């Protein structure tokens, strides 16, 4: 006899979920989510609760508090693996995605040398570009796969022209942190694999909008930052399981070759791991699920898309329709997430951002470490104004920004 599906809790409304983010109570329109998300109460309470209970106690199997912290570390790795649709033993957590990427580059520097090549997409944040340029020190050639203007999309023919027999790695973002452009990751990884190379995907900016799935995206390496997904400041790296034991990253001598903990380098920030678990609990609840499972997180991702879509529509169309505004990147809502780069005629980006902030609307100004795309657009180093949404952003927030733009 077929068992009935478990009852689901009612989905929280946008007002309900906004109440879980204390900074929103300040009455400001927060439109800098690309730089870092706000934290729900459960994450904040988890960080505080950990420090109140354990202080800076380390993970030690010889006493009870240490064993509890060791169990916390395992739960955080398991939760991160669920978020990526991966296995826990293939996931590393450390202080930032940038730090983990540099450590991975240290492994590649021991594998590659003169004649080997790396390709960087022209949309990259420097965390997925500078580490690979470091390989030039050991003789690796670094090439750039430039995005096509004016919409700044990556074209497969341009990549095909760059791929060579000794191409070892292609670095590509799943969403541009400056322009919001979303490349076709499964198509790119398939093209790269057919050429015999590896792909590293920077999912830092994509992850808050579409939770990554390493089983379908086809990457060999993937990074994201929990702090962009409403958690404390952490970075994460996934490595394809059959590659782990082949990568000679610098590690403590006693850690076995291929053990993912070897790339984490040092003592974890346990209180931040606790906060990340609090965020995952929030996401489970956002989807109306009682248990933290991959299905619950997929439902949360779908719910986030549903909440963001009308807000993104208003953001993009409102800026495109503004007589004094120039929008860079896609000229519509297709092929992007809810992040828009723009300039106001006759005003420097910093002036626009400062004027809006004084009116209670917080956007960003600058290059956001997205050096290559803004250089290609002729906008570096001054950069652009960037407005970026999350699932708690409202159309009222967007209207407030559009009104203040004048």
Salient structural properties:
406 residues, alpha/beta, seven-stranded mixed sheet, single chain, four-stranded antiparallel sheet
What does this structure look like?
- It is a single chain.
- The chain has 406 residues and is an alpha/beta fold.
- Helices cover 37% and strands 14% of the residues.
- It has 13 helices and 13 strands.
- Strand 3 (117-121), helix 5 (130-133) and strand 4 (141-145) form a beta-alpha-beta unit.
Shape: globular
Topology as H/E string?
HEHHEHEHEHEHEHEEHHEEHEEHEH
Supply the number of helical segments: 13
The SS-based structural class is alpha/beta
Low-pLDDT runs: none
- The neighbouring-strand order within the major sheet is 2-8-7-6-5-3-4
Helix fraction? 25-40%
pLDDT averaged over residues:
96
Taken as a percent bin, the fraction of beta residues is 5-15%
Total count of strands: 13
Give the N-terminus to C-terminus distance in angstroms. 64 Å
Largest sheet: 7 strands, mixed
- Specify Rg, calculated over alpha carbons: 21 Å
